[in-house]
Amino acid sequence: MRDLSQRSLDTAVQLGASYADVRVVHRREESIAVKSGRVEGVASGESEGFGVRVIVDGGWGFASSSVVTAAEADRVAAEAVRIARASATALRERVRLDDRPPARGTYETPIEEDPFAVPLEEKIGYLLAADEAARSVKGVAFTEARFEAQRELRTFAATDGSWTEQTFTHVGAGVEANAIEGDEHQRRSYPDADGGTFTAAGYEYVRGLDLAGRAGPLAEECVALLSAPQCPSGRFTIVLDPSQLYMQVHESCGHPTELDRVFGTEASYAGTSFLTTDKLDDGFRYGSDLVTIVADATAPRGMGTFGWDDEGVAAQAVPLVRDGRFVGYLTSRETAPRIGRQSGGAMRADGWNRIPLIRMTNINLLPRPGMSLDDIVADTDDGLYLASNRSWSIDDRRLNFQFATEVAYEIKGGKKGRLFKNPTYTGITYEFWRSMDAVGDESSYVMLGTPNCGKGEPGQGAHVGHGCSGARFRDVQVGVGKW
Amino acid sequence: MTAEAPPDTLTIAQRAVSLATAAGASEAEALVSADAAQLTRFANSEIHQNVAETNGSLNLRVAIGKRVGVASSNRLDDDGLRRLAETAVAIARNSAELEDWGGLPEPTPIADQPAGWSEATAGATPEGRAEGVRAVIAAADAVGVRAFGSFSTSAEHVAVANSHGVRAAQRRTAGQLLSVMMDPDGGSGYAEQAGVDIGAIDAEVVGREAATKARATDNPVAVEPGDWTVVLEEYAVVDLLSMLAYMGFSALAVQEERSFAEPGRVIGSELVTIVDDASEPGAMPMAFDYEGVAKQRVVLVERGVCRDVVWDAQTAARGGRQSTGHGLPAPNPYGPFPLNMVMSPGTTDRDALVGEMERGLLVTRFHYTNPVHPKLAIVTGMTRDGTFLVEGGRIAGPVRNLRFTQSYLAALAGTVAVGSERRTIRGDFGGVLVPPVRIDGWTFTGATEH
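YS: structure for the whole thing
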C-alpha cells in the first residue's frame, strides 16, 4: 500500500499538484438478519480501493478506483489533476489549508472478542433466540433481529510526509417487535430500531446486550401500545431517554455545528446552518447553563473515535457548547483558518471512493453530577417520558425539528405510569435546548450512535457516536398533526 | 488518461456462477456491476468539490438446499471470484434453513432497452461539467445571487447470471444538474434537470429558473400553519411517490401487514394514476431487476384505486405470484421496490394550477421528509427553496418555510387538479416522471424562521 500511495503522490506532484493525499481502504462487513424466525439474510462483503485528492491551481480534484495497481495509481492521480484543473476554471478563492505536523503512527479499535472470529452458527443462534423471545408474545405480528460487523483498514499518505495506518472495528445488534391491528402499527425496539445500536467494540458488546432477555418484555409493551391512548397534544414537560436524546443531539447540535455547512458547501443537498460565525463571536446562548456538548474523537466505544481524521489531523475533544454558550465548530484544515482556528480534526470519508467531509465524531451531551435519570423522573410532577426514536426531521438551517418516539410514559407525581402511543414533539433548536432544566448524571450515561448519518453529493454514510444520559425539557409542544 | 473499457460483466457473472456451483452450491446467482461516476459540485458560485470513481463489484448469492448465503466483493479477477464463491458457499453451509425459500428466478424474456444509454453521458468530461456549472453561475451572477449545486454523470454496466439459466446484461447512463440559489435578502430557489442524456440538459435554463425563484423569494413573510390548498411543483410531488413506495407499494410490506395498499382500496381521487414503468424513457429505463428478471409495468394506482404492488422472487414465491421484476440486490430486508415511478398527467396547464386557486400556497420542494406513521402514510417534512402565498389566483409573495405533518394517502384523496406537463426528477430511489398537482387540505403544523 505504501508503494502505491507514494506512486500516486509522485505522479500527482509531477503533473502539477501543490498538495496531494492518498487513502487506501479495505473494508470487510458481515451482516445477519432474522425475521419472524427465518434467517432472511447472511452476507459477507469486502471492498478495496484507493482515492487520490489533489490541489492544482488552487482547486480541488479527486479520483478513485477499485483497481489497486501501479498503473492505475498513475491513471487515477492524473485524472485527479485533470479534474482539479477543471475546478480551477470556476474558482473565486484558492484553497488554503492550515498547517499541522505530519501525521505518523498507528491506531486500532480496542476489542476483546473479534466479531468475525465468532462462529456464524453462534451469531445466528443468538439472534434466533432474541427473535423467538419477541415472537412468543401473543399479538406480535412480526419480529426482527439483526447483527452487523465492520472492519476497516485505512492508510493515509500525504505530500507533507504523513503516513498513518488505522484499523477500526464496529459492531451493532438489535431486536424489534411489531404489532398490527387495523390501521395501527406499533413497534418497540432494543437498543434501537433498524439494526440496533452500533459501537466501536468487539463481539463482547453484542453479548452484553442480552437481546433475548430484553425481547419478551419489549414485545409485551409493543402489543400493549395497540390499545394505549393516543399521546395527548399540548405543551408538556418531557424527559428524554438516551434512546431518543442522542438523535436530538445529532440533528440539532451535531449537524448545525459543521463548519462546511455554515459556509454553504452543503447547501445544495442538506442545507446550511443557523449557527453562523457571528454567533461564535457573540457567545450565542444555544442552551441552558446545564448544556455542555463536546465533539470528542477520543471517547471510548464511540464510532467517531480514531487516531487521525482523513486529512491527518490528530483526534481531539473540541467543545461545541459550554455551559449553554456556543463556543466551537466541527472543522477541517480548509475551513478552520477562516475563523482563525486550527482544524479540530473532523474530516471523515466513507470508504476509498469518497472525499473526506466535515463529519460528526462523537457528539456528547455531558452528564452532570447531582441527579440520576430516575431522580429526574421523581422530580417531575406532571410530564411525559419519551423513549426510542421512530422518526426525525429538521429544517434546512437546523432550526425547526420534529421527532416521533416509539413510546411515551405518563409521569404523574414523580412516577412513570400509563403508556401513550404515537408520541411526537416539535420545537425550535435553541428554544428547546434553553428549556433543559435537568440532565442525568454518569449513572445513565451511554455511548450510542448511528451508522448511517447521510451527507454529501455523491452521498456518504458515516458512523458517528453520541454519548448522553437523559434530560428534562420544559414547555415543549407535544402531539403534532391529525390522528 | 481515460478509464479502461468496462469489463465484460456477463462473462464475469457466468464465471462466478460456475465457481459457486463447483464449490457446492445447489443454486447460484451473480450480480456484476461496473461503473464510472463523476460529480462536480459548486457552492458560493465556485467549484469546491469535484470527484470521479471507477468501480466494479460482484454480489454472489448461493443456496445449498434452503440455506442461503451472500458474499460481495470488488475483486473481479479469477482469484477474487474463486475466494468469493468459497465464502458464499461457506456462509450458506453455516446458515439456517429458510423454510419458505422460493429458489432463484427462472429466465424471462428481456427486451433491449436502448433508451437507457447515452454516448454523450458516458463520455462526459470534467471540462464539460465545469462548462455547465459556469453557465449556472453566470445566471446567478446576472441577478446578484449565489449558486450552489451539482452536475453528476454516470455510466453503468450491469449483468445478472444464475444457475437456472438467467443471462441478462444492460448498460445505463444518468445525468443530473441541480442548483439551489440564495440571495442576500433571504430568498432561495431551486431547479433541476435530469435524464439519461446530458445533451438534453440545458444549464442556462436550470440557472435561470433557480435564480429567478431566488430573487422572487426575497424577504419572505410568515403565514400561519393550518390546512391549506397547495400547488406542489414536480420537485415536491416526487416525494409523495417515493415515500408511498417506501411505505407501502412493496409486496413485503403487504405480507408483513404494514402496508396501506390492498387491491380495490380507494386511496386517491380519480385524477391520480401511478404506475411503475421501467420502459418509460422519462423514468431512467431499466430492462431487468437485480435478480435478472424482466421489468414489468405495474399499475399501482388507477384513477384513485389501489391495483397492485411490486414483487421480487421471494415475495412472489410466498404469495403465489410471479416476480414483476422489482428485486433489489441480496440480501434485501426491505423487499421489492418500484424504481421507475410514473404519474399520469392531467389536463390542467401550469398557469391554471395556480390561477384557479383562490387562496393557497405554491410549494417548490420538500426537505428532510420522514414517515411518522407508515401504515397511515403520515409524513413530516419542511418546505424549502421557494414557498409562495397565492391569493385570487395570483402569487401574492414569498412566505417563510412551513412544517407539515400530513397523510400522503389523504393528499392523494385531496388531489383536485393534475398538471398536463411532466418532468423527470432523479429521486432518492430512481428516476421519477411526475406532473405538478393541486391538493386541498394540506396540513401544515409548524413554521420556521426563514
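YS: worth flagging: The radius of gyration of chain A is 23 Å.
IM: good catch. Also Residues 70-87 of chain A form the longest helix (18 residues).
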